[in-house]
Design goal:
With 256 residues, the protein is of the alpha+beta class. The protein contains nine helices and six strands; from the N terminus they run αββαβαβββαααααα. β4 and β5 form a beta hairpin. α1 (2-12) runs antiparallel to α2. The two termini are 27 Å apart.
Length: 256
């Protein structure tokens, strides 16, 4: 059954598929899988290749590439979960590639209900690199993951034993926020300030200033391009303006 499911996911368009037993999944910050699907047995993790859009110096084009792969991935995720329920008689819950996320002071909107990075590693789809992203054996760092959580018990895939990171430190040197200075840790706030300049922090700051401004100044504030960018980001969701750690990583690039 596992290989039939893998073939089905590949036919949908996933570039790779891995399986992890629920007990093999470990995430330091995300909640337990039973809080999402009581009786969860298996994570089916799907991998999708990120296009060269991530290299574009045009931030709108780079983000459009991410939105496109996310839209495609969500469709594949739903269709796989639908297949597991209709064809396999299982219960299945989709895990999205990004938002919606738990928005709280504790998580700062940056902790997934399932850590797809840790799920991918548990499912044998890669290993962590110096940038704390998952490096896939063929696609390298340019990969996006989704998952389907199911109560169907399936054998897990073997973890990747190889060290896929080249240790070149290009990600560290290219990071505009110096968020990777400490090995094994990403300075979340330093990353977000650069990668999401029109995120929730910027929105809170803007509306605080707007509330304190004189009525005559408010019209100018909403006519400023800064507000327009905030408005656009608010309609899109998490809008990234930096993909440098992904774009510069040479690991496994060009492997068949």
């Amino acid at each position: 059954m596992r290989e039939t499911i893998r073939a089905f996911a590949r036919e949908l368009g996933a570039d790779d598929v891995g399986f992890a037993a629920a007990g093999a999944y470990r995430s330091p910050r995300s909640p337990g899988l039973d809080s999402i699907l009581p009786g969860a047995q298996t994570l089916v993790v799907l991998a999708y290749r990120e296009l060269s859009s991530c290299e574009s110096p045009n931030p709108q084009i780079a983000m459009a590439g991410r939105l496109e792969v996310m839209e495609f991935a969500r469709s594949c995720n739903y269709r796989l979960a639908r297949h597991l329920e209709s064809a396999c008689g299982a219960r299945a819950v989709t895990v999205p590639p990004s938002y919606p996320l738990e928005m709280s002071a504790e998580t700062k909107g940056a902790v997934g209900d399932v850590s797809l990075r840790h799920a991918a590693v548990a499912a044998g789809l890669g290993a962590f690199g110096r940038h704390n992203l998952v490096i896939h054996p063929r696609m390298g760092t340019r990969v996006v993951f989704t998952a389907v959580l199911t109560d169907l018990a399936l054998p897990g895939d073997r973890p990747v034993d190889d060290t896929l990171c080249t240790g070149c430190n290009r990600c560290v040197e290219a990071c505009p926020g110096n968020a990777l200075a400490q090995e094994g840790r990403t300075d979340l706030m330093a990353c977000i300030r650069n990668s999401q300049p029109y995120g929730i922090g910027a929105a809170i700051s803007f509306w605080g200033r707007y509330g304190a401004a004189d009525p005559k100044d408010r019209k100018a504030m909403v006519r400023d391009p800064h507000f327009w960018r905030l408005y656009q980001a608010g309609s899109i969701g998490f809008q990234y303006f930096c993909f440098r750690c992904m774009a510069v990583c040479p690991a496994c690039r060009g492997r068949a």
